[in-house]
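Researcher: I'm preparing a figure for a lab meeting and need a structural model of a single chain. I don't have an experimental structure, so a prediction will have to do for now. The sequence is pasted below. Please return the structure as tokens so I can convert it later.
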Amino acid sequence: MGKQILILGGGFGGLAAAHELRNGLASEHKITLVDRQPLFLMGLTKLWILNGRRSVGENPGNRTTLTKRGIDFLEGEVVSFDFKNRKIRVGKQQLSYDYLVIALGAEYSVAATSGFAKFASNLYTESGCAEIRDLLQAFNSGTLTILVCGLPFKCPPAPYEAAMIIDDVLRKRGVREKVRLQIVTPEPHPLTILGQDAGKRVIKLLEERSIEYHSSHKVKEICQKKILTEDGKEFQSELILAIPVNVVPTVLKEAGLVGQSGWVPVDPTNMTTNIPQVYAIGDCAGTRIPKGVLLPRAGILAEGQGKVVAKNIIQEITGKGRPIEFDGRGVCYMEVGSGKAAPVNADFYAQPSPTWEFTSPSEDGYHQKQRFLTERMEAWFQ
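Model: Understood. Here is the structure written out token by token.
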């Protein structure tokens, strides 16, 4: 008898798992992917809105096309879990499963930071980036601040990418010398998990562009043209672009899945939870690396986890091959403006600390990033 495999969330991890499962299992096994909406837009492209390289809603993937690949798609909100009876409620529908892959990601809590909704623009949404794009075209002088409101947050290089892209936009407008550009963050240094040397590489890129970096400051409140921090500092700023606090989806808390870290605890080698046949991958998972801290939230890592989970489910169903483990490796392409990007390869499971390789920014690095996008969109939706 065929198995029912249910995937909650259609981001990097969910899509990678769904396709891997479909390619490795006979058609008698049903694969269903659930997401709130049919359209998929890769998060790494949001910052391209700032400099006009992409428009809002441009070239999305459509999850409804997954049916052509033998993957069922259900649009809806996950409401509740019944692990004892292996059932999930999505909207008013009840779904049964033999295997469950939770890939619901992280949500943004604007309300977690006092004054955010009134005095800051959201750097992590499409609509927010479109608003910022327009603001940049009218911003001729004063202080512009990129503010990180809490840890951890999706895509650790993003605040620094945004700052350098904005620097490039302002230079091309001929107003950069009249704008003070700064980053305020609770991080001790950029790319904290990779260590101080990696952080110094990023800080050097910022210094080359006269971008100020203010680390180890946790925001207390965003006011009109002012940021107050918990250590008593005050940063004046005419324009505040903020990264909201990232939180685990409420439905996972209500299901009792969330651990002390604030995320769903998993075995870092295979992404299993403490519930049989239930896995958690991607941003909602609290994956601890050998150093003891949590694995960064990045699409490439969620993709790798999704593939590992899928292959292990296939192995368990078919009895063929051996279980595999997630290796904690990933690459990101940190943009620096002017159509250049710096590939950063990392092994987060290396002992005793993560290892990394930082390639200098280049046009080829940017083209690699574009290929990264194109290859996945074609593999998942065409």
